[in-house]
Amino acid sequence: MPQTVVRHENEHLYADPPATPAGGVLSNAILRLRRGERAQAERAHQRSGLGGIDLTALRYLVQAYRDGRDISPKSLLAMLRTSSATITNVVDRLVARGLVQRVQHPHDRRAHYLVPTDEAVRLVDATYAAHHTAVVEVIDSLTDEQAEIGALIFGRLADRLDELDRSEILAAVDAAR
Question: What is the pTM of this model?
Answer without folding.
Answer: 0.75
